[in-house]
Predict the 3D structure of the following.
Amino acid sequence: MWRKTIIPKIYFYRELLLISLKTSYKGSYIGALWIILTPIIHILTYVIFLVGIRGRVDNLLHLITSVVLFQVIAKSLGSAKTEKIQNFSLYSNTEKSHRTMLKSSILKNLVPSFLVLLFFYFLINISNIIFNFNQIQPIDLQTLLIITASLPILFIYLNSLVVLINKFSSNFTDFNQALNFITRYMLFTSPVFWSGITGISFVDYFIKLTNPVYFYFQFIYNTINKSIGFDFFSLLFPSILFLLYLRYKETITNE
Amino acid sequence: MNNHILNITNGSFVYSNKYILTLKKLRLEKSTPFSISDLNLSLDKKKVYGLIGKNGSGKTTLLKILFSKIELQGGSFSKSFNTSKLVSNSLKTYNTFNSYEIFKLYYLLEKLTFDSKDFETKINSFIELTEFSNQDLLKPISNLSKGMKSKVVFSAIYTLLDKNVNFLGFDEFFTFGDQYFRKKSESLMLNLLNDESTVVISSHNFNLLRNICNEVILIDSGNIVDIGKPENIINLYRKGIS
């Protein structure tokens, strides 16, 4: 049973991912190196910015995680508005093919970014051991496992968001403009707020309402924190989005 | 109904966002939206239909209604086919991709699964059909000429088409490449049509319609003007133009 259904599906997503990645970096001299270079440049920018303002970086781990994750989310949301399947008359099930294309646009950001995240965690742990650099909190195996296990949640969340944006963005220009604003706001605030502590409950609440990175990262953070346990609240918004996705997914069109 | 593959009575459809624009004092103004009203049409099984009309007369809209790409807002619609396919000649392609990658992406999105053996046979027949060398196959699609691009699209559509489809539609489809390839594509598609399927072809190629259609439908401003033998309807259409 699983040989006939699951393995072809895994091969399918592997091939889709490879072809999307290969074509994304075509024509560039350093190619896929951009995947790791972009977050490094981003992290360095924020480190310089934070050191300049505060004289320190409170939590490099939060900074790295949020920079990498916000890139996944910002890129996926960016492609949500533009990603359309072409020659749609070719496909027997246009809606399903279109949704698959949107899924591949998320996967091509999510999978490399997760590898980049692992690379950074590994780097931090190694540098802690070699240089005894105790300033940064190391990542233990349990945290890593929770982050990995929660990736499907991030994927489902992003997929719902991207499909809904794709459905509504062509009809409402205002919605598009608002989305642009939110993406930029999110892009700027996530790493800064998580690397330090805002301490202002209103600001925290506002981030909670608008920032998708929050739901993912706070879910992991709260779940790891034994005093809170499994954080259902952080999953509330993604769950609502997922229900909306189930309601509207059959109606997305390519025209 | 037994002999009909599809039946529409009193069907109507209005585009909410496609208006007919009129020029008034050097300003474009929206007038009535494009609509199809009082549509009565029955298509028989195992017949080939042609669809002619001026540009903007509603040929593509009618095809979309027949193939359930858009839903009628009024009237009744009944169908008795299991599989249908509407193919159109849209030449939009992914410019950074090469032909091999384009075919692979089309294959993945059509099948929604991946079987390496099946893919191998399909890509071989794709290469055979395009008559591309390995060098052409790996060229970015943006570097290919328009004719060659259309060859890629046609070959991909033909290779991936389900050959046992009951109800098939072509929307201004046979306009690919040079004269030689156009003839080749026409004969390939016509050989493919089995006696069991019903076909609707929207085209301006009257020779093709005369040769293969049992009946031709003339459409104007969203209304069906007449249905009948190809020669009579084509003459009627020509008179209307002149």
User: Anything to note?
Assistant: The beta strands of chain B are 4-24, 27-44, 48-52, 74-79, 84-88, 167-171, 198-202, 215-220, 223-228. Chain B touches chain A through 30 residues (CB under 8 Å). Chain B has a mean pLDDT of 82.
